[in-house]
Amino acid sequence: MNRTLMPMAVMAFTSLGGSARPGRIRQNIRLVTEVYTYLWTGTAASDPVDVRAAYVRERFAPMFDFEDTDIPEDALDPFIDYIAEELARAVPGADTPAAPGPS
């Protein structure tokens, strides 16, 4: 779990390449706080895993919206999906099926 949260925190605070603006940093802190609150102290345990993953993705994706780079808009989607799924499955007290193994 800590390995999943670390990239999230690093990206939230650095906004890729140090081009962070104070408003952007505040927004990212708010988003990280919302995700943490929902997953660990909110209603996440009673939501299905796909609902939890969608909630996390919706808040996590804006952290990777880098307007001033050449990164294609959807290039980080697989990474964002992976992090959202991992966090959604890590909710304490939730009846969550295990992630599918490698094929």
Task: Put the structure in a nutshell.
This protein is mainly α. The chain is 60% helix and 0% strand.
List the topology elements:
Layout lengths: L1 H17 L3 H20 L7 H12 L16 H13 L14
Helix pairs in contact: 1-2, 2-3, 3-4
Structural domains: how many: 1
N/C terminus separation: 23 Å
What profile does the largest beta sheet have?
none
Distinct helical segment count? 4
Taken from the alpha-carbon principal axes, the silhouette is flat
> How helical, in percent, are the residues?
55-70%
Taking pLDDT < 50 over at least 5 consecutive residues as the criterion, the unreliable ranges are: none
Portion in beta strands: under 5%
Quaternary structure of the protein: single chain
Q: Give a count of the beta strands, DSSP E runs of length 2 or more.
A: 0
- Broad structural category: mainly alpha
Radius of gyration, taken over Cα atoms and rounded to an integer in Å: 14 Å
Can you give the mean pLDDT? Answer: 78
* Topology as a string of helices (H) and strands (E): HHHH
List keywords for this structure.
single chain; 103 residues; flat
Could you describe the 3D structure shown?
By secondary structure, this protein is an all-alpha fold. The chain has one domain (about 1-90). The protein is built from four helices and no strands. Helix 1 packs antiparallel against helix 2, helix 2 (about 20-40) runs antiparallel to helix 3 (about 50-60) and helix 3 (about 50-60) packs across helix 4 (about 75-90). The protein is flat, with a radius of gyration of 14 Å. The chain starts with a helix and ends in a 14-residue tail after the last helix.
